[in-house]
Amino acid sequence: MDKQIRMEEYAGYQYIEGGVCAAQGFTANGLNCGLNPDKAKNDLGMVYSERLCTAAAVYTTNKVKGAPVLVTKRHLGMSGGRAKAVIVNSKNANTCNADGVEIAEKISELAAQALEIRPEEVIIASTGVIGQPMSPEPFAAHMQELAAGLSREGHTAAAAAIMTTDTVRKEVAVEFQIAGRKCRLGGMAKGSGMIHPNMATTLNFITTDAAVSTEMLQTALSDIVEITYNCLSIDGDTSTNDMVSIMANGAAGNPEITMDGTEYQSFRQALYIVMAAMTKMLAADGEGATRLLECSCVGCPDRQTAVSIAKSVVQSSLVKCLLFGCDANWGRIMCAIGYTDVDFDIDKVDVDVASAAGTIEVCKGNAVILPFSEEKAAEVLAEDEIHININLHQGEEQAKAWGCDLTYDYVKINGDYRS
Amino acid sequence: MDKQIRMEEYAGYQYIEGGVCAAQGFTANGLNCGLNPDKAKNDLGMVYSERLCTAAAVYTTNKVKGAPVLVTKRHLGMSGGRAKAVIVNSKNANTCNADGVEIAEKISELAAQALEIRPEEVIIASTGVIGQPMSPEPFAAHMQELAAGLSREGHTAAAAAIMTTDTVRKEVAVEFQIAGRKCRLGGMAKGSGMIHPNMATTLNFITTDAAVSTEMLQTALSDIVEITYNCLSIDGDTSTNDMVSIMANGAAGNPEITMDGTEYQSFRQALYIVMAAMTKMLAADGEGATRLLECSCVGCPDRQTAVSIAKSVVQSSLVKCLLFGCDANWGRIMCAIGYTDVDFDIDKVDVDVASAAGTIEVCKGNAVILPFSEEKAAEVLAEDEIHININLHQGEEQAKAWGCDLTYDYVKINGDYRS
């Protein structure tokens, strides 16, 4: 599958290059510090803003939390929701280690020293294998070099540093206006396996030059996570280390957004566009995936019902196998809709399956599967991006969820992950 | 993998042959009526008791319910919890069909006519592909032959008739005493794919010659389903047609059990033994499975906590891949324990992984993974039956859950199920 997703258009928002450095005043870098034995692959990344940023984050809901998650929470608490830098490594999650928190603090201090900032202004994150001892040595040995190499072009090196089983870098940025000021918001993400709703679901860093208060940053981030990353499922597993963070340095010069209103809504929309695009990229690059699945659920009494049903479909192993096998076994879709644990009348539901090759009506009420052409179904399912569209006809709310097919390669990748 | 599970021993209960005909007064039969184009494979089964039975059932929680589920509910309601026969087919679920209920009623009538009983004394079930038109013709053509061939030996033919992607027949029966009377309880099951907690999870028929009131049958069945079938996960999908039913004809001559007490507990234990063994058989024969996983969670504040944690582990795709790949990536087990949506202190938890080849201590408190020998881990994980043992040290309650590894063959079987 072509891992490049189709980017949706939104009036007033232009996609731009630059990832986490698209916003004014942010620099980044990435390098190999030796955690990854393949020296051609970056394993340590940094993002930096000389201007102090407001900052917010959403963390994994797993009870087993990676040490970096605990340390970032503490830092943002100590700094009152302010930050200047992100330090992040791959290949070792620094989770379930006896001295994990000490090590994460040590790495934060190393980054702070190199940048001449305070340790509590550092957001720290790690991804990789759980329960492997981690030494601060490789970090100490490379931190100066990492900081010295910070640049506006460094976003690709940083995005490469957070890749694990990802096959492509994930970066998105948009340019937009707030109160007549040109603003930018961009980010980078890693995903692939262990991605599941009901939590922050991925390692993800967002930067913006819009001025937004810590409170409104947190409000927007928590809200958008619900309808983007939390609507993504690769394999139903919820990681110990997942985190989404956002830093806003105000370099765009707009009056700081401190409450809901037109300006907040413009900012929130930018965040939605970037996070929805990255969510779709994560689904398309799911471990072993050959097909992207987008499930849209409309006509719902409330957003939670829409989210739950859409997620139930993209999470179904049998639907995922259906996609992989291009098998028009529609009963599996009906089945996954039916076991969603929310209240609705199944007899009013319409379902269709669509792709660039056309649309098949699966069901129009009464939970009865309609006759269809096997030939056309095969054509529709042969495309890279499949849409399952559900209309409950029971309200006005809607949501989307994203996933991918379940393939031999998923099993292969995860049968032997540590090697 | 050898699909034969190790049967646990229980004092006072002997395993016996006979499946659904182990109990006195039950006969059964199975044949090919043409739903399965492979004439060597049975697709229609019947179980019968001349004595009127008390009867109870647990049904799928899926909102999309197979027509036979709706019809059985109606029948048991009309008969006041009494039944004399089961009629069941494979290859077609009779679900999401416009005339499904009429057809299921028609098949019940055909069975009732052949047996000279009332239609509401018939428990009906179907399993197979969803949304395929079903004709009563093949049933009409073979019902007399099916009824005429009923015998005490017919349990194997009936058990064969309910197999779909199952590779082995599943039958278990025990002999035990109630109030000095020899009683028997046995059953047959089908499973393989689409098996998931939070519902009845499989097609399953149980018979006993103990005398038990409808109310106490329902109480026992609902209770035991919670800690057996509902603790089984193959792929996380919850079927539209799943049902567990029990019929008690009283032929053993014990005074009818109408309340809790010693006699009820003896009966409940027999039901537990048979249903737990069948649950384990279903896990061992999961689609594509090469390894059986039993997760035991003890030291819990309540049964629900124990059930939730044990299920979380057996459902984890990453743990399932770990088993397939024999990869000692213990972090995945910690991760799955951690994302269970119940309240407990993760820092008190002990975890070990055991098999016939030995035991590995994974964690003893503080959510820290202990050092271990890769060599020994490889030996332990190479066995057919793997046990993950969790102790919360936070109470006295416990539960088990069962699952299997995720393999290439699961993906293969489900990428092309309909053919």
Automatic annotation (TrEMBL), chains A, B:
Primary location recorded for the protein, binned into one broad class: cytoplasm
UniProt entry keywords in alphabetical sequence: Acyltransferase, Amino-acid biosynthesis, Arginine biosynthesis, Autocatalytic cleavage, Cytoplasm, Multifunctional enzyme, Transferase
GO cellular-component term (any): cytoplasm
Xref: Gene3D superfamilies: arginine biosynthesis bifunctional protein suprefamily, ArgJ beta chain, C-terminal domain, L-amino peptidase D-ALA esterase/amidase
GO molecular function: L-glutamate N-acetyltransferase activity; L-glutamate N-acetyltransferase activity, acting on acetyl-L-ornithine as donor
Residues with site note (Cleavage): A200, T201
Catalytic site positions: T201 (nucleophile)
Reactions that this protein is recorded to catalyse: L-glutamate + acetyl-CoA = N-acetyl-L-glutamate + CoA + H(+); N(2)-acetyl-L-ornithine + L-glutamate = N-acetyl-L-glutamate + L-ornithine
Family note: Belongs to the ArgJ family.
Protein's UniProt name: Arginine biosynthesis bifunctional protein ArgJ
Lineage of the species this protein comes from: Bacteria, Bacillati, Bacillota, Clostridia, Lachnospirales
UniProt gene name: argJ
